[in-house]
Structures are given as structure tokens and as C-alpha cells.
Amino acid sequence: MISTAIQKLRKHKLVLVAVITVIVLGLIFVVVRARERKRPTPPAAPLEVDVVQVQEQNVPIYSEWIGTTDGMVNADIRSQVSGYLLRRNYTEGAFVRTGQLLFEIDPRPFEAVLNQAKADLARAEAQLGQAVSQLEQAEAQLAQANSGLLTAQANQRKTQLDVNKFTPLFAKKAVTQQDLDNAVQSNDASIAQVDAARSQIRASTAAVGNAKASIVAAQAQVQSSQAVVRTAELNLGFTRIVSPIDGIVGIAAAQVGDLVNPNSGVLTTVSTVDPIRVYFTVSEQEYLNYVKQNPTPAQRSAAEKQLELQLFLADGSLYPHTGRFYIADRQVDTQTGSIRIAGVFPNPDNVLRPGQYGRVRAATSVQENALVVPQRAVSQLQGLYRVAVVGSDNKISIRTITPGPTFGQLWVIQDGLKDGETVLVDGTQRVNAGTTVKPRPFTPVQQAEQDN
Predict the structure, then answer these.
(1) Is residue 279 in some structural domain?
(2) Which of 105, 116, 279, 371 sits between 20 and 30 A of 432, alpha carbons compared?
(3) Could you read off the pLDDT of 77-105 as tens digits, one per residue?
């Protein structure tokens, strides 16, 4: 009994000690917290920020247009004869040279036509030779007839002299009637020979004319046969379809075994892509402004030579080669109110292909004494553009501005800022109006480090 009472007493003492310990620790904690609350909180250090001064400078004003690439020359390859395709002799999408074989059409029908045309030509040439021979014979006969006429005329003159001589002698009874009759008969025979010789000349002349006509007809037949041969040779040559230019060749629209003809459409297209054209449209207002800035043809020509075109590709990257102005269309499109312009870009590695889209940009004017700030200094919220301006007391004021065009990493400010004012580089995201900051001049080195 006594031992049990002693144990209970010990337990009560332990519980009492534990309670007292908890109470003491609680009082100590309350006192410490109260002292900590009474200590003053030290002020926060000003936020260190990068700042730049608003500056005036002459800024080139860029204009941008949507552009489409196209080959300098786009040669549509078509069949000029009818026949079956035997083979395709090029790699689709590859670079081909002028005269390189692209397609072959079955040449056998055209070879047969050519052989027939050559045979007809040989026959016509033989007929021409025969006509020439006939002309030579007719001319020889004509010459012989002319010679016979001269002989007959000489004989007739002699017999006429005999008649003239015997007639007065007969009247004087110096010659007999028989002598006079013989002279007259000889003269009549000579006259008949002259008439016969003249008839022979007329016949020979007609033969010469006929021979010449035959030659003309034979020559016409030869020329016609030669034309048929040349046409057959051309058609045979058209069975080998070659590239007319150096360029990139497209996918074939016809396959081996297809029957093609001049109405089958385009077999493929070859495009010259170095240099390559880029077409874009300029509004009529932009065109008129350009004409006002360069009123004379000489000024416009000089401005076009100095104009450099930049091309931004579909992935947003800048094409490494700059282009130049090439041509402007002759008219303004009445439906869109724009004029079509073409620029030319070097394309040595054939990176650009016809049909690509991009953005064409060019400096079209210069804005003098423009106020510029880094683009990242401008924040946009609900259609409003704002900057954080650092005052002389290093306190922030949020100001709404009117931005203009961009230039590189800079933004032209049309209204809301003055030359020499200081703005935060990082915009308004980190500060509020009235915030005190510790400004730090911003340098391009910082920009490069942040970009990396």
C-alpha cells in the first residue's frame, strides 16, 4: 500500500514538472515574438534596372509586301509530234542543261516517212534531169534549124539573082525559055526551103519552150519534195525532246508508254532559277508617292539602282542575298488598285524555287530626327502602347505613347516622348507608377549576352 502511494506521488510530480516546463517555454516564445515585432523592418533596396535615353536620329522607313518567287524563264515542254513515249531521260527536280535529252518518242514511223520523202525527192530530181536533157536536145534542134534557115536563105538569094539575070536576057533572046524556067523553078524551090526552115525553127522553139516548162515543173516538184524531206527530218528530230534552257526541271506529267501529241498538254517545265524573280504588288498610293519623290525618269532610274530588296522566307529567316528592282508592270490592276513589281535575287545554290512565298522589304524613305527607343522598352496592353519613364528623382511614371515604324531593334515613337528622356529597357512588366529604381545604363554588350 505504502509503495503504491509513493509511486503515485512520483507520477504526480513528473506531470507537474512537465506542465511547468511547457508553461515556461510558452512564456519564453511569446516574449521573443513580441520583441521581434517591435524591431523596425529595414527598407527594401531600389530595384536595379537597365535604362536608355530617347534619341533623335535619321531612320530609314521600310515597306513590306507579300512576294511570290518565279523563274526568270519558265519553259513548258510539250510534244510537237504524235507518238508513244519510249523513255524519260532525266531526274525529276534536277538541274538540266540546254540541249539535254528529256523525253524520247518512238521514232520508227517518222523514219519511214523520211525514207519515203527522200525517195520522192530522188524521183523528182531524176525528172528534173530528164527535163534538162530534153531542153538541151530542143535547143540543139533549134540551132540546127537556124543554121538550115541561113543556108536556105543564101540559096534563095542566089537563085533570085539567076532569075533577075535571065529575065532581061530572055527578053533579048540571049537565053532560052528553058534557061529562064529552070532559074524560076530553082528560085521557087529555094523559097520553099526557106519556108520549111522557118517552120522547123518554130517547131524547135516550141520544143524549147515545152522543155523549159517541164524544167520549171520538175524544179517545183524537187522543191516540194525537199520541203517534205525537211518536214520529215524535223518531225523525226522532234521525237527527241530536249531542254531549251539551263534550269530546274519539274515532275513529268506523262509516263513511258503514254500516247502524246501536240494537244496533250505540258509534259514538264524547266525554270531558270539563278537569278530568280520575286513578284509583289504595290498599292497605287505607294506608287504615286514614289513618283512624287522621283519625278523625272533619271531620278527614278537612279533610285531603282540604289534600292536594295530584302527577302524574309516562310520560316521567318532572312534570305542571305539582297535583291534589286527588275521591272514594274505596265498597268494598275483596276480590281485591286495595285501595280505588280518584280525584283531579282541571286540564287547560286538553287535554294529558292518557283512558287515560294515570302515578305519583301525595302527602305522606301528616310524619317529625319525621329525619336527611337528599343522595341523591348514598349509594352502593349489592350491596344495601348506604354513605356516606363524614369524621372529625375528615379521614380517611375507609366506613359502612353504612339509608336511608328520599326527599324532593326528600334521603334520610332511618333508621340508621347521627348528627346533626352530616360526609359526602362524592359518595359513596364517589373515596375509600377511611383516605384523608385536604381537606373543602370544599357549597353549593346548586355543585349548580346541576353540574346545568347
Answers:
(1) yes
(2) 371
(3) 999 999 999 999 999 999 999 999 999 99
Q: Do residues 129 and 230 share a domain?
A: yes
Q: Are residues 113 and 225 in the same domain?
A: yes
Domains identified in the chain, total number: 4
The model's pTM: 0.62
Least confident of 16-25, 155-164, 283-292: 16-25
Same domain, 198 and 304: no
Write the pLDDT tens digit of every residue in 150-190.
Answer: 888 888 788 888 778 778 877 777 778 887 778 788 888 88
Are residues 414 and 355 located together in one domain of the fold?
A: no
Q: What is the 3-state secondary structure (H, E, C) of the chain?
A: CHHHHHHHHHHHHHHHHHHHHHHHHHHHHHHHHHHHHHCCCCCCCCEEEEEEECEEEEEEEEEEEEEEEEEEEEEEEECCCCEEEEEECCCCCCEECCCCEEEEECCHHHHHHHHHHHHHHHHHHHHHHHHHHHHHHHHHHHHHHHHHHHHHHHHHHHHHHHHHHHHHHHHCCCCCHHHHHHHHHHHHHHHHHHHHHHHHHHHHHHHHHHHHHHHHHHHHHHHHHHHHHHHHHHHHHCCEEECCCCEEECCCCCCCCCEECCCCCEEEEEEEEEEEEEEEEEEHHHHHHHHHHCCCHHHHHHHHHHCEEEEECCCCCECCCCEEEEEEEEEEECCCCEEEEEEEECCCCCCCCCCCEEEEEEEEEEEEEEEEEEHHHCEEECCEEEEEEECCCCEEEEEEEEEEEEECCEEEEEECCCCCCEEECCCCCCCCCCCEEEEEECCHHHHHHHHC
Residues 341, 375, single domain; the answer is no
Q: Are residues 229 and 116 in the same domain?
A: yes
Write out the residue range of the structural domain in which residue 205 sits.
109-237
Question: Do both 225 and 300 map to the same domain?
Answer: no
Q: Indicate whether 99 belongs to any domain.
A: no
User: Does residue 63 form part of some domain?
Assistant: no
